[in-house]
Amino acid sequence: MDHKLFKKDVHWGEWLIQKALLLAGISSILIIALIFIFLFREAVRFFHTGTPMDLIGKWVYDDWEERNVFTMMWQSISEVPKYSLIPLICGSFLVAFPATLISAVLGIGCAVYLSEIAPYKVRETLKPALELLAGIPSVVIGFVMLAFIATFVQDLFHTKFRLNAFVGSLGVSLAVLPIMITISEDAMRAVPKELRDASYALGASKWQTIFGTVLPAAVSGISAAVILGFGRALGETMIVLMATGNAALVTGNIFSSVRTMTANIAAELGSVAQGSEHYYALFLVGAVLFTFTFVLNLFSEIVLSKMRQKLRM
Amino acid sequence: MIARTLAGGALADLDRDDVAQNPVKISVHDLNMYYGNVRALHGITMDIKERAVTALIGPSGCGKSTFLRTLNRMNDTIPGARIEGIVTIDGVNIYAPDVNVAALRRMVGMVFQKQNPFPKSVFDNVAYGPRLHGITDRAFLEHRVEESLKKSALWDEVKDRLHTSAMQLSGGQQQRLCIARVLAVNPEIILMDEPASALDPLSTAKIEELIHQLRKHYTIVIVTHNMQQAARVSDYTAYFYMGSLVEFGETKGIFTNPEKKETEDYITGRFG
């Protein structure tokens, strides 16, 4: 057994690097798992005192109507605290939907331009500019929305409230735009040149090639961009906290003030008594939000991997 | 008569004398092509006959693919590409300023080295070209698709799965689908850029058989790395080297008794 073929090569450096990288990988997964566990553990404690029904609404005696009325409200500091999630979910979607729509239209248009039309030099200047957009702190976007755009929107649409879901969604669409552009542009660039050549060789114009070949081939990637953008829009906090007016109303009116799940947590968690029902209710809001974004991210991952399979030539 | 070629293998059993009577389809005169400052083609002059197969051979980077792509102006899509000289098809200069490039490419179809079906159904692949040019009538499209698939000898294999993804076909089937896609726009000329180089021998044989069939109705220009293939499928052969046309003539002559020493060296494998 002393033969040279049985002697092990020892590379301590490699071993160390390998283990260190393993540790880094495991710890990031571990941290996410711990956040997950912590969030849900705290959220579940709400049910020690509250009921699932409380999350939808409560029968409360109404002095005006002199009878019990079913109210769907988030009134955490009140004689009878109410923790209905409905106005918050409603607010979140009322901001996230228009924001996704606006940024999808702008973002996909921009991605088509960047990937298919823009000359090399224009692309090389525009892309870093977009990264700058991604680098704007959301508090700055929120500030601009709150201070300037809100007035402009009110003058334009004569809205009752200066700060409303629409102003918030304008701001959020700015925050989501870079991710929307980047992912859909990547998807279009991933369409092999051979397919474009095939289209041109059949006598297609540039636009026929874009709409007939590139966009259909990239459609899953673009859908993933939209889904991911929607997830980001749901999770955006600072802009909505500053620009939506923060009134927890159940409404479908986009020019009404709303309060989103994220803004609600940000606004209240800092001043809540730890271990109180209110405290756990906020964690519950967080858990619901997390579930939404988790499912959306998962879904977009599946869509993206489908696209990679489809384009494998 | 089947003559032994210098490259080994047999010459195609084609009715070559018939082809010699055919009129000239494509005429190239003193064609120079530049990528930026790099000159890729040096004064190419040649006449390509109608309803015949012309093979372009030569080592990698010799300009044969570049030359092929000048015939349907696919080089237009490459930034910095520039052309001098005249290419005429049926006597019309295809580089004249007011030529409709889309119409030219309908007339001059192209099959690529790597099979490139769209990630769509078999039907939609073949119907892509006709639809581009405004045909929406379903019955007409169905007829055109069937006809094209029959011409490309793929119909029997795919007629029951016209609406499944083209990506599920085998490599050879995909390449024949690409040929069907070209046939669907009724071209007069078909350019083939190493159409069988990514295929197994059996699929290659099918493509070559198909070229034999198509030769009766279409003018075919094919780039190939495979000497035996050139000998098997073509009526005329052009040998390119370093962007120049070294020798051009009937395949029989080129492969049995080339005029130039370089051509002979290349064909016999002493070089390239």
Explain what this protein looks like in three dimensions.
The complex is a heterodimer of chains A (313) and B (272). With 313 residues, chain A is mainly alpha-helical. Chain A folds into two domains: 3-48; 82-312, MetI-like (MetI-like fold, Orthogonal Bundle). Chain A has helices spanning 12-44, 86-117, 120-135, 138-157, 165-189, 193-201, 206-235, 238-243, 261-268, 277-311; strands spanning 58-62, 67-71, 74-75, 82-83. Chain A has a two-stranded antiparallel sheet. In chain A, strands 3-4 form a two-stranded antiparallel sheet. In chain A, α2 packs antiparallel against α7 (206-235). The longest helix of chain A has 35 residues, at 277-311. Chain A is globular.
How are strands sequenced across the largest beta sheet of chain A?
1-2
Name the CATH superfamily classification of the largest domain in chain A.
Answer: MetI-like
- Mind describing the biggest β-sheet of chain B? 6 strands, mixed
Name the helicity range of chain B: 25-40%
Shape of chain A: globular
CATH class of the largest domain in chain A: Mainly Alpha
Question: Structural class of the secondary elements of chain A?
Answer: mainly alpha
Largest interface: A-B, 23 and 31 residues
Largest sheet, strands/sense/barrel of chain A = 2 strands, antiparallel
